[in-house]
What does this fold into?
Amino acid sequence: MPITLEALPRRAPHRLEPMTSQENFYDSVGGEETFSLIVHRFYEQVRTDDILGPMYPPDDWEGAEKRLRMFLSQFWGGPKDYSEQRGHPRLRMRHANYPIGITAAERWLQLMNNALDSLDEGTLSDNQRTAIWDHMLRAADMLINANPDPHERG
It folds into this structure.
């Protein structure tokens, strides 16, 4: 049965746990180690995916993984490596050459959900997991740029 945006898990609204003034979300979830694991597990699936896999140059898997890891790390309060190396994220512009319809967005979310669910239960609290998932939902929706959907199966 295909997964749709409506069928994907909608986690309860989140409240972030209190953090010290020296701690941010990135640090509170385990920093580089956690984001590296999420991104690596995501790309393990993408490499063999029939919809998302062909969107990536076959000789740049490590680069793709590094860019997403840097972006997510920076977004959640980690090092600013992404902006220092690549400038402003401009996600819609950077993805404009890839036809992303609802089917691709849903697949992206499915694989990202799998990656998040693969983490040990103690890695992320429910509130932290929900915060990350909410961001992924918004990002996937924002990147849809193709209508009609080029991957829709009739």
User: Anything to note?
Assistant: The CA atoms of residues 103 and 154 lie 12 Å apart. The chain has one domain: 30-142. The two ends are 14 Å apart (CA to CA).
